[in-house]
Amino acid sequence: MSCVNLSTWVQTCSLFNQAGRSRSPSFQILHPLENIPVSIISQKRRRPISSFSVSAVLTKQDTLREEEESESEPTFSFKGYVAQKANSVNQALEACVSLKDPKKIHEAMRYSLLAGGKRVRPMLCIAACELVGGTESIAMPAACAVEMIHTMSLIHDDLPCMDNDDLRRGKPTNHKVFGEDVAVLAGDALLAFAFEHIAVSTVGVPPARVIRAVGELARSIGTEGLVAGQVVDICSEGLTDVGLEHLEFIHLHKTAALLEAAVVLGAILGGGSHEEVEKLRNFARYIGLLFQVVDDILDVTKSSQELGKTAGKDLVADKATYPKLMGIEKSKEFADKLNKDAQDQLSGFDPKKAAPLIALANYIANRQN
Q1: pTM score, two decimals?
Q2: Burial group, residue 141, by CB count within 10 angstroms (0-12, 13-18, 19+)
Q3: Which of 12, 105, 357, 365 is the most exposed place for a label (fewest CB within 10 A)?
Q4: What per-residue string of b and e applies to 58-74 under the rule 16 or more CB within 10 Å gives b?
Q5: What is a single cellular component term in the Gene Ontology annotation (predicted)?
């Protein structure tokens, strides 16, 4: 993957200042195409958390001592972290959406909710909560709520009136198994239950924080978030004048907003300060856009079998994508920069506690399906 030529990246204004939310000062994304504006929210550039400097000359004895201490310290295992958190999330989801009457609707809800998936959003929620001093148990109801809403969005997105897809996570889509009517209701039920679950099941957290978290989650999926991105996406099909700024609006809302909610909910419930919450909000926006850029790349470079969903459907629908507007190589460069900018936002946090978020960002950047 080639390095980005920074002289070709241009600064632009922000599109994503949404009313009613606490926002950081706007800043510009530097884009890998000349004279093409795109925008996002950020803070002043900081050094990546993985960068360290030594300002003093170490003696040979000091160096040996540090090497011994380094060797004795356990390293972060992303594979182990993912396995443990995914297992915890799956158990929580299994428990909170049980099979009861009416069985048909609960079968449909569980079919999509428990169909696997990477559980990236719940993990981000838990990792953000733990980063600011919270615990997995505090974040788990919110993590499950975000996954329920994400599943709802997939069920509805696959419907014939939307993206009309027959395959999701390697299995027939919900409406192919249960019918369009039940699939719509299954999504509705998951959406409603998500808010009930976070309100009723979150324990050990002041009510004001829970209310704030519920408000964040609601905004992320309404006309300031997921719904806004989805409707603009639908209205953009077949248009020939869709540019990068327009495309970014779609994905900052349709994809990034829910990822942002996952991280911000964890930070709020974990007791993060205003500054910590906003830094993590910016981190989440970067990885949210990164997620979509990578998704667009995979859609044209991988098979349906590799992806577990229909490949090339954006090309067939004549949708604007990053590879279509920028090309594959520039899209990859853009993804690299988004990942770096995301990790810059973690500067100042405890590196050990930030390790899961750094690893999750790298996973999103390098995933293959």
Answers
A1: 0.78
A2: buried
A3: 105
A4: eeeeeeeeeeeeeeeee
A5: cytoplasm
